[in-house]
């Protein structure tokens, strides 16, 4: 889901 | 992962390694703002709270641990190392970083993608990172001569977020990523704050003269 995907960067 | 983001992460890592090397090799933190370093620890701690809960990739997890470890050890050296802490001049590093922390936190409570602990902390860390360099830039303006390592450190630190801007453009157009105003605008502000430093840094590099920021 897009919610957690947004935190895949450092 | 794309080349821009990898370049950004490596530039960021290099900047921190360079600073840690300067402090350990020269046993000195002259010209470095402890306030900015403390803000970076807050940025990493609040951004990586999901380190133990969320696994994206080995790279992602290892880099988070490295960033947390190095930033905390830099603050430790500047605060507690018997030799290094003597070289810290708190009389010139006077920026009240509470004036950055509180507004960023309030803003994160008001403007965020979701009102959850993780999301608000993540948003706070983005807002805070955008302005975290200010105490360091103020300190550089007060420094008569800026040593090369410090100048290179700040330059690499500014360059890393510029690479991230390219990464976001790439992700939006190529990976048709959805719009993400909070990191994009925070990153844009962060890079813009370095603008005049970049100008003087490149000028000093071209003219082969000492880096000097106008007061």
TrEMBL record, chain B:
**Which branch of life, at top level?**
Eukaryota
Lineage of the species this protein comes from = Eukaryota, Viridiplantae, Streptophyta, Embryophyta, Tracheophyta
The protein, known as? ER lumen protein-retaining receptor
Please name the InterPro entries in this protein's record: ER_ret_rcpt
Q: Does the record carry Amino-acid biosynthesis as a key word?
A: no
Q: Which GO terms describe its molecular function?
A: ER retention sequence binding
Xref: PANTHER family = ER LUMEN PROTEIN RETAINING RECEPTOR
Q: Which organism was this protein described from?
A: Cocos nucifera
Q: Where are the transmembrane segments?
A: 58-77, 98-115, 121-140, 152-170, 182-202
Alphabetically sorted, this entry's keywords are: Endoplasmic reticulum, ER-Golgi transport, Membrane, Protein transport, Receptor, Signal, Transmembrane, Transmembrane helix, Transport
**Cellular component terms (Gene Ontology):** endoplasmic reticulum membrane
Q: Which interval of the chain is the signal sequence? A: 1-25
Tell me where it resides.
Endoplasmic reticulum membrane
Chief location:
endoplasmic reticulum
Topological type in the membrane: Multi-pass membrane protein
Which BP terms does GO give this entry?
Answer: protein retention in ER lumen; protein transport; vesicle-mediated transport
Family, per the entry?
A: Belongs to the ERD2 family.
């Amino acid at each position: 889901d897009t919610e957690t995907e947004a935190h895949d960067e450092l | 992962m794309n080349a821009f983001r990898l370049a950004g992460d490596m530039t960021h890592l290099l900047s921190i390694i360079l600073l840690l090397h300067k402090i350990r090799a020269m046993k000195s933190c002259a010209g470095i703002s402890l306030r900015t370093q403390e803000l970076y620890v807050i940025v990493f701690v609040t951004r990586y709270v999901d380190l133990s809960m969320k696994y994206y990739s080995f790279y992602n997890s290892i880099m988070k641990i490295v960033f947390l470890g190095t930033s905390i050890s830099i603050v430790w050296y500047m605060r507690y190392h018997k030799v290094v802490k003597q070289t810290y001049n708190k009389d010139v590093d006077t920026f009240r970083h509470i004036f950055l922390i509180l507004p960023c936190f309030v803003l994160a409570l008001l403007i965020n993608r979701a009102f959850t602990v993780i999301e608000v902390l993540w948003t706070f860390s983005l807002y805070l990172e955008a302005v975290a360099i200010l105490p360091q830039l103020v300190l550089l303006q007060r420094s008569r001569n800026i040593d090369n390592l410090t100048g290179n450190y700040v330059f690499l630190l500014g360059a890393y977020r510029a690479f991230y801007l390219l990464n976001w453009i790439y992700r939006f157009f190529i990976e048709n990523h959805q719009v993400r105003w909070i990191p994009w605008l925070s990153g844009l502000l962060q890079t813009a704050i370095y603008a005049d430093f970049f100008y003087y840094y490149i000028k000093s590099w071209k003219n082969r003269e000492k880096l000097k920021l106008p007061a």
